[in-house]
Amino acid sequence: MADAQLFEETFNITNVNSAQYDRVSRLTGTSTDNLVSMTLDINHELFPVSVGDNINLVLATTLNLDGTKEEKGWREISKQGEATLADMFDYVCFGKCYRVEEGDTDTVKVYISFGGLLLVMQGPYRKLTGMKIDHIYLLVKK
Question: Which Gene Ontology molecular function entries are recorded, alphabetically (predicted)?
């Protein structure tokens, strides 16, 4: 599964903004080592988060535990009855990494869309090296 997992980090939530949309909150947080910052839109009815919470965020290319690509669409995976990476997390989305910007120094900014819900991460290149324009799974748990 190591090949499928592009990124894993624990973030401390520093701000939760729920004012703009009915069921969506925009989370801001920093990684435990303070190297990566992130902004994440989530459905707060499905996954409530408060300031001060720590969340574990994983980005992966597949939900298969052995790291192999899905032969069927992502919607059929849960219908097969087999255990998947999604079973270990509370909140799962499927989306696309649509932009990777390199900064002036050793920093990278990554933009990922999950059907209108966005994730933006900024940090050192060595932490975000696996990101490229491609489909991706977001998995989150407390």
Answer: DNA-directed RNA polymerase activity
